[in-house]
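Exercise 3.2. Students should predict the tertiary structure of the chain below and write it as structure tokens, then compare their answer with the key that follows.

Predict this chain's 3D structure.
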Amino acid sequence: MLLQILLQVQPPKEFFTAQSITTFTGASAAVWVLSNLARVIFKKNSTIPCFVISLIVAYLGAYITHSLDGVVSYFLGFLNGALLFFTAVGVQGFANAAGKGELTGETKLQSAIKVKFLTPWY
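Answer key:
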């Protein structure tokens, strides 16, 4: 029975869709990727853009699912944004710790501030 169910599962054809962004996993991945993109583009090691992106993604998910209908739902959107923020910070810390290795050569500095994709935010 389980094997039949597993054989029927189709792989996703797209990474991010309107439906996947409303799941916790999809929203967390979107926040993490967009936050790192902002860090690399602006060369700033700050958690503020991550928090702003987390709130935007949380309220976008609530808007897509038509669940913004009162003060309580906006407060829950804020709590969901905070949860996404802490998840992204945790994933970043884990990825940074897991990616530690030995340097094999010198790196060439391309700009005034060196910001890598998996450097810690704090």
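Discussion points: The mean pLDDT is 79. Residues 108 and 114 are 10 Å apart (CA to CA).
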